[in-house]
Amino acid sequence: MNTAENECDCIFCKEELPIELTKTLISEVFNNNAVIFAGAGISTENKNVLNYSFYEDIASKCDSKEKNLSFPELMEIYTQKPNGRIKLLSDFKDRIRYIRSFPELYRIATKFHCELATLPHIDTIITTNWDTFFEEKCSCTPFVMSEDLAFWESSGRKVLKIHGSINNYGSIIATTSDYDKCKDILTSGLIGSVLKTIIATKTIIYVGYSFRDDDLDYIFKFIQDEMRNLNRTSFFVTPHETPKEFLNKYGMIHICTDGTYFISELKKHAWRNKILFPDSIYEIGNRLLSEMRIEHKRLHEHYNCYDNPEVILCSSYQDGVIHALERMQSLRSTGEYSDQYKINGVFNSYDSIRKEKLKQKRYEDVAYIDGYQNALGFILLIGNGNFKRPFPKYYIYGIKHDIINFSDYKKIAPKIHEYYKGVYSRIKRLIREHTKYGSKVEFHHRPIL
């Protein structure tokens, strides 16, 4: 699949080079068999975040006159100063704090993570980065220490942090002596066993590295030693030229483009083939959510459930819509609502629940489920570009046509008794259950699992 060439030449777009996604790569990703191996280039060391690297920052504070030191060599020299290791970790923490203090910098530093979040088919990430951006933006469970691995199979999306986490100072791998200890751990420890299993059974996609990267050179030597050159073909994503000798040496295929753009192209392929919804569903869903909250408030400003008990069903319906849309927003970082098959399954699962509630004459639950399913149906339709009519924001049990807005509801409200025969006894019981005598409060329905 070839993409059109990017005409924009700004610093953010000029590295979004056209690529071809092979059938093998597509198959591995969408069969949940691909793993991202992420370096600092997609995070805090992205050159578009700050105009100086962490290496350059430490070098400016270091007394060493030696040049061309590797990253761990420089860190080793710096940590030999009085309280050097504490200062090193504080310096990195300050770098993170500074990036967070400017939303624009934070957006750039987490751009890759946000793009990856809505690709649920990649649920395992390995990183040498110390920051917590994968945890924050992709809902990843971090695995840093060997004892964490007891929860590996039950954790959902996960990130294996082989060089530690800034949330656990003792785990940080920075200096040459740290790297030596880390190599021993990876060679004989439990984390190393998990890493080797992943490398042996999954397709690895390296993003955020250059072929000159100290981390990468160290990791590849470890992989070669441990796998005895039997490791699977992997992919190396970078917009920069990479020597063929380097690629051949480590059995890699070069994908010459920006890492974030690469993920977006995978998602476009999935959208065209009805595997994923486009990310626009979240923005459209959020607009509808804001509108529904306004309409819910308007309903209770004009009617109260003590004097007009029938509004309980309309309120329950609106709650169903609101809860479905809120849940979609809250789970965006997991990518769950981007998965067409999963949302179809959830939509259909409510059919049997609705039938059961109808038998029990729990009409407020039926109304809630109708709202929840309508919201899911809305997501399914807009995700495929098929939703053309206004969304029904109001509800009267028994009416087959859509009630779009408050004006439509007011017109039908005087005749509501014709539709609610046999329903009022249940609604009046709800009034007694949810309100004190004479009180006039809003009715809110709890989510139905």
Q: How would you describe this structure to a colleague?
A:
The protein is of the alpha/beta class. The chain has two domains: 23-272, TPP-binding domain (Rossmann fold, 3-Layer(aba) Sandwich); 280-434, no CATH class. Helix content is 51%, strand content 6%. It is built from 19 helices and seven strands. It has helices at 23-30, 54-61, 71-79, 84-101, 103-109, 111-117, 133-137, 176-188, 190-201, 214-227, 244-249, 259-272, 280-302, 311-330, 340-359, 363-383, 406-412, 416-419, 424-434, and strands at 34-38, 124-127, 141-143, 158-161, 203-207, 234-237, 252-255. It has a seven-stranded parallel β-sheet. Helix 11 (244-249) links the parallel strand 6 and strand 7 (252-255). Helix 3 crosses helix 8. The longest helix is centred in the middle third of the chain and has 23 residues, at 280-302. 37% of the residues are buried. The model has no long low-confidence stretch (mean pLDDT 88).
Report the structural category.
Answer: alpha/beta
Helix content: 40-55%
The low-confidence parts are: none
Per CATH, what is the topology of the largest domain? Rossmann fold
Note the gap between the termini.
Answer: 41 Å
CATH architecture type of the largest domain: 3-Layer(aba) Sandwich
Instruction: Report the mean per-residue pLDDT as an integer.
Output: 88
The main sheet orders its strands as 3-4-2-1-5-6-7
